[in-house]
Give the backbone structure.
Amino acid sequence: MKSINDIKKIAVLGAGTMGPGIAQMFAMGGYQVTMWTRREETREKAKETLYKSLQTFVEENLLPADQLEATYARVSFALTVEECVRGAQFIQETIVENKQAKIDLFAEVDKFVADDCIIASNTSGLNVFELVPEKRLPQMVIAHWYSPAQLIPLVEVVKGDKAPQVYADITVELLEKCGKTAVLMKKFIRGYIANRMQMCLNQELFYLLDNGYCTPEDIDKAVKTSFIPRAVVLGLCKRADFGGLDMTANNFTNKSYTMPPEVDMPTSLAGYVERGELGFKTGKGFYDYTGVNKQELLAKRDKQLFEVFKLAKKFMDDPV
């Protein structure tokens, strides 16, 4: 593959949490997309999710109403991996985050994929370069999306050591053509950028909760009225610039902050999991969603995310 112009068909492997949103963005970029999933139930739910999401984009003036049906029609569904990937120039894998499941899928893909096809994985925590057949390493990149895939702009991209730089560059160009904000990392590290930042926050979050310093509501109120909205304007590095790097250095020198001790599992988190209180999907977690209309709440969440990211894009287009 020499350029983005060589990409005509995109295969999306997996139609669960991430798949429909990813397929939607590629379709909105004008590409023919074929999705695959093992289960018919998942496939039918993905079709419904995709269509409803496109309707929401129309409502938010992000997709012309007269393009909805044509965009939806660009996404087809395959019954087999072979049917999905044959003839594809770009593959986006987004199945369950399970090592053996990915090994098995990549072994299947290996039988049918063209030698010049870019193969991208959405893995969030696995070193996928250790899981693919060795002869496919020169084709491998990671394109790590965030959920909801059609709403969160960021996709982190990193190529394998044996893949040419042009494959990473084409991946970034493709994602940006489809409306995403792609960040090309210099080399692979587990968790990439945003997830590593979030894990640092999570470690502190559970330390505060487990030691009785505050409530979940206190934490959410504090971050939503301080550094999170500020970060929409300044990010993290520019915020340090504006505050003064000498001040940041003083915080290290003066030991103004010490990390909480590492634990195998936060006590409060373990309690939620043991009780089966897994958050929104089970009706209870940090917050109680009993009696809440989940579809209405999801729609409200999405509309508010639209507003936030529209504002964020405005600021990114005219940065401080």
About this structure: Strands lie at 9-13, 32-36, 75-78, 90-93, 118-121, 140-145, 154-159, 181-184.
